Amino acid sequence: MRIALLACSDPGRRLLAGLSTGLAGSTVLADADRRGVASLFAANWSGYDAFICVMASGIVVRAIAPLLGDKYHDPCVLVLDPLGRHVISLLSGHLGGGNALACRVAGLTGGKAVLTTASDSLDLVALDLWARGQGLVVERAALTTASARLVDRGELSLWTDLTVQSLPAGLHRVAQPEQAELLITPRLFTGDRRPIFRPRNLVVGVGCNRNTPFAEFSEALEELLAENGLCRASIRNLASIDKKIDEPGLLRLARSNGWWLDFFSAERLNTVDNLDISPAALAAVGAIGVAEPAALLSAGSDLLLFGKRKWKNLTMAIAQAPCTLSAQGPVPPAS
User: Fold this and answer.
1) Nearest to 49 by CA among 86, 4, 15, 18
2) pLDDT tens digits, residue range 158-197?
3) Domains located in the chain, CATH noted
């Protein structure tokens, strides 16, 4: 974490001098006075992950106001009194790591971290941090809705088709999706306005003829997902036979969606049991099949959600990778 230290008084500068030795990656910015704080923030806003300020919170608020974007991109900002007795997490407490950093700084100064985020004040799970720690894909609107309900009611009912090892306090699992306020699933619930968090646990296996156009890959995938009621956001990666490692349309499909590609030799594909043998694949590439065994090998499971679907120039299948929810939170931001 890149940390900028600012102060506009001698007592503040003395406090920062001590903090800089205990915070790896920290830099004391040029001496600031009340008139220069805004310029320092403006010049360095995008260059640091965190700002630790020893000055009045009003000075900081006025200085950063023109720079604010959203909690997904803004750095965290802490404000301290000159003695370090109060360490206020002012901005980006959760996703930006401000709350965790405030607790750490308070440990160095002997003071108290002041956390005003509702979940922390009420001893509830921070849904944004928990979802990130679980590897879930979350739309902003869904996160805002779910977090507000959790804070308002002190609990949130959850339905999922994933394995659940444990859940954090405040979340409780229900048996049917109709009973839940929050859904965690790769399945589509068309027209449902409840917040849905998406696990990335789907692997799409692909077999294809040489030089199949990108448009055919893209259209086939859309059809496959729609037919089986699955969300695109839950796709983790694609998989195929190593003979397709330079297939332009397949590579473009992966690259344009930010998915990685796993490739397997015919020998590896032939180790997968209990699949129907494809005479065409056996004759063309020496494998019992491509889409189904590649999906299963890449997913590291034996759960084939949907067997191969054929189009003119390609086949696709979907396997589900193991995915378990737990109460464990994310690893704290690196120092």
Assistant:
1) 4
2) 999 999 999 998 899 999 999 999 999 999 998 888 999 9
3) 3-116 (3.40.50.11220), 127-198 (3.40.1390), 202-320 (3.30.420.180)
Tens-place pLDDT, residues 215-272: 999 999 999 999 999 999 999 999 999 999 999 999 999 999 999 999 999 999 999 9
- The strand pair at 202-208 and 314-320 is best described as antiparallel
> How far, in Å, CA of 147 to CA of 258, rounded?
28
Range list of β-strands (E), 11-107 = 26-28, 50-54, 76-80, 86-91
Which residues are within 8 A (CB) of 214 and not within 5 positions of it... i.e. 6 or more apart?
Answer: 248, 249, 252, 253
Instruction: Give a three-class secondary structure readout of 241-268.
Output: EHHHCCCHHHHHHHHHHCCEEEEECHHH
End-to-end CA distance of the chain: 5
Q: How far apart are CA 182 and CA 134, in angstroms?
A: 15
Q: 263-296 in b/e burial notation, b at 16+ Cβ within 10 A?
A: bbebeebbebeebeebeebeeebebbbbbbbbbb
The pTM (predicted TM-score) of the whole model is 0.71
